Amino acid sequence: MVWTNKGHEFDELAEHILEAASKKSFYIWGAGYFGDAIFSGLSDIIDIVGYIDSDTRKFSSTKNGLYVCSPDVLKMLNKEDTAILVSAGWTGDIFNSLSDLGYKKNIHCFHIDEFLSILMIYKFDKVYLANIGLFISERCTLRCEKCLGLIPYIENPRVMPLFELKKELDVAFRVIDYVSSLALNGGDAMCNPECCAMLEYIGGKYLSSKVGTVEIYTNAIIQPDEHFLNTIKKYNAYIRFTDYGDNPHQRIADFIKLMTKYDIRYDHVRYSEWCDMGYPQESNGLKDEEDLQNHFNTCDRRSCQLISKGRFFYCSQAMGAERAAYCPIIKDDYFSLLTKSLKKKEFIEFALGYSNNGFINYCRKCNGSYNTNNKRVAVGIQVI
Asked: What single-letter DSSP state applies at residue 303?
């Protein structure tokens, strides 16, 4: 979206959010990791009464002491008294379902990222984000041809030293008051021998006060040692790993046994296919600014935002493309966290998709994510 009124883009939406927050009870649609992470940032501010999820295995279970309901509950709710916060998966289909039932977006239902950030900045002048990533390793134990971060194509990949990572977070948290989920990723986070030490630093300095929960992204090849496992358990971190099917290097069963033994929260991610974002291609064919803006607006990359070198990126793939010398970053692609006169509302607007151009430079090459791109490839094909 193109900035036309910096610092005031969400004034109208904020009125709806503030009114809903003061008068309504809320259900979170999505009883998974993200819905759980958001709960910690909102439960003391609004009245959350339950979860909704389409996974039949979760029906009638509880999360944070609240029942997980079937979407059928929507037919029984009073829209004037109850609103829905959407946090699950690809949100477009969920909002379409809600619309079919008469729920109007930004009146009866809200994107949870927007709701959280706008509520906190307009009500308390606080910068709250749903999630950010910290890129801690350019190395990985695999070389996937269609890696979203373009890791196999980075020359001389490095792991980020502990002092650099600490500084990165310290800079970010001078601006950001709270993030529901902080992800340590790469590459493979486990390829950085300082990953455990970084978790200890976050746990000791920022957990609860600035960070709701910590995620660690890995591919289940490097097995954490006992000290690391105990540290993960101590800080209740969350391990997310992708199953690459027939890859002989992965030790999925052993990894799951470790997670179970130490009672560690984990997500075993399995895909039947991957999204082909296009690498390598000189262009995706989009040249007109309006087409690029539409491409950006329909590609939901909010779950992949990250910080690097004092810069906040809306799209982590753009930063990966820069590191691989595939597509340069331009100034309008990021928001500097080092600006002395940083304006909080403008930062929130950027984090929710506003910019000077209305798209990022990488939009000229990338095919986009799942909700806007129907090109698919087999999972985990390795570069020879």
From this structure: G
Bond from prior residue into 280 cis (ω within 30 degrees of 0): yes
Cβ-contact 152, 104 below 8 angstroms: no
Rounded distance between C-alpha atoms, residue 262 and residue 245, angstroms: 25
As given in the structure block, the two tokens for residue 130 are: 């749903």
Domain count, the chain: 2
Does residue 104 sit in the same domain as residue 249? no
CATH number where 258 lies: 3.20.20.70
Range of the domain at 203: 127-377
d(CA 310, CA 313): 10
Separation of alpha carbons 325 and 320, rounded Å: 9
Query: Do 184 and 213 form a contact (C-beta atoms < 8 A)?
Result: no
Structure confidence by residue, pLDDT tens digits, 250-281: 888 999 999 999 999 998 888 888 889 998 89
The label of the residue with tokens 């390795």 reads: 382
Tell me which long-range contacts 113-118 makes (C-beta under 8 A, separation of at least 24). 113/302, 113/352, 114/10, 114/13, 114/17, 114/352, 115/17, 115/85, 116/38, 116/41, 116/42, 116/180, 117/348, 117/351, 117/352, 118/10, 118/13, 118/14, 118/17, 118/348, 118/352
The pTM score is 0.92
Written as six digits, the tokens of 94 are: 């969920």
Q: What dihedral angle (degrees, nearest 10) is formed by the CA atoms of 206, 207, 210, 213?
A: 140
